[in-house]
Amino acid sequence: MGEDNNNKTGVFKGLYELASIGITLAAATFIGLLIGIYIDGYFDTKPWFTIIFLIFGIIAGFKNLYHTTKKYGSK
Question: What pTM, to 2 d.p., does this model score?
């Protein structure tokens, strides 16, 4: 019975890690987009800062994805 519980815990831990990767990728992109929209509204420079910060958010999300997969890929 002890092995069965450890196996279930391992499965849930893996699902948590996969879900957190997706959530952080989406969150970084969304935060970059919101910052860009806010700055564009403040300086009236539509759509330049929105595009720039959206790209920054996407890059930050993929950087986090790379570091997370590198961390868990070495196990």
Answer: 0.81
In SS3 terms, the chain reads as CHHHHHHHHHHHHHHHHHHHHHHHHHHHHHHHHHHHHHHHHHHCCCCHHHHHHHHHHHHHHHHHHHHHHHHHHCC
Per-block average pLDDT, block size 10, for the chain (75 residues)? 67 86 95 98 96 98 91 70
Range of the domain at 54: 2-73
Q: Considering its fold, how many domains does the chain have in total?
A: 1
Tokens of 22: 């997706």
